[in-house]
Amino acid sequence: MKKQYNTFIKIGLFITALILFANKFLKNKPTLINKSLIVGDSHAVGIGSQIKNAKTDPLIAKGGWRVSNLITALSNYPKKMDITKVIISIGTNGQFYQNDNVSGLVALLKQKFPNAKLYIYGGSYGWSGTRDRATTENLFNVYYKRFKDLGVTMLNNRLGYFTTDAAAHSVTSNSAKALINEINNLVK
User: Fold this and answer.
1) What is the domain class of 32-186 according to CATH?
2) Residue of 107, 100, 46 whose CA lies nearest to 75
3) For residue range 78-88, what is the model confidence (pLDDT) as tens digits?
4) What is the DSSP string of the chain?
5) Cβ proximity of 113 and 37 under 8 Å
6) For residue 2, is pLDDT > 90?
7) Angle in degrees, 0-180, between the axes of helices 102-112 and 133-149, rounded to the nearest 10
8) How far is CA 111 from the centre of its chain?
9) Residue-level pLDDT at 33
10) How many other CB atoms are there within 10 angstroms of residue 90's CB atom?
11) Phi and psi at residue 86, in whole multiples of 5°?
């Protein structure tokens, strides 16, 4: 009986030591589950409403927003350690403005979501009628390359050219469906 009791004590001490060791050396390495966030403009809101495993927080996603609006909102947003993916939708309202503070936005996103991988998708254009299609497509490509150059992953699908605002914001267009499918697969 005493031998069984000693064995029980030894096993208990071993388990306690193992737990203490694990807590000391593994506590700074939290296991993150896939928590995804969609940020930006009206496309973030619309496309985000179709994504099963991602949240679109109205504090950092609103219609009409430009990069400057998103930077202002993020400046007041708390740091979130549990977010693993951030999908960005921005650029449309500023018509892919070359002086947008893209590097400031990316730096702030990395600061607010330090454990997240950043993704972006191309917005819509053409429906405002302010520029010809070829000029806007060139601005579009140059604009999103700036994000890619800063380490943001560009999604394969994009919204692209539309002749009307309603079509650009429809979640049933072929380009929106392809984008929604890609994001849903990304955030599974």
Assistant:
1) alpha beta
2) 107
3) 999 999 999 99
4) -HHHHHHHHHHHHHHHHHHHHHHHHHTTSPPPP--EEEEESHHHHHHHTT-TTEEEEEEEE-TT--HHHHHHHHHTSPP-TT--EEEEE-STTTTS-TTS-HHHHHHHHHHHSTTPEEEE---EESTT-SS-HHHHHHHHHHHHHHHHHTTPEEPS---EE-SSHHHHT-TTSHHHHHHHHHHHHHT-
5) yes
6) no
7) 40
8) 13
9) 57
10) 28
11) -125, 125
For residue 6, what pLDDT is reported?
66
CB 38 within 8 A of CB 51: yes
Task: Determine whether 89 is exposed, middle or buried from the number of CB atoms within 10 Å of its CB (0-12, 13-18, 19+).
Answer: buried
Strand partners, 153: 119
Predicted TM-score (pTM) of the model is 0.82
Confidence check: pLDDT of 48 > 60? yes
Give the least confident one: 10-14, 16-20, 44-48. 16-20
Residue environment code for 33-72, b if the CB has 16+ CB neighbours within 10 A, otherwise e: eebbbbbbbbbbbbbbebbeebebeeebbbeebbbebbbe
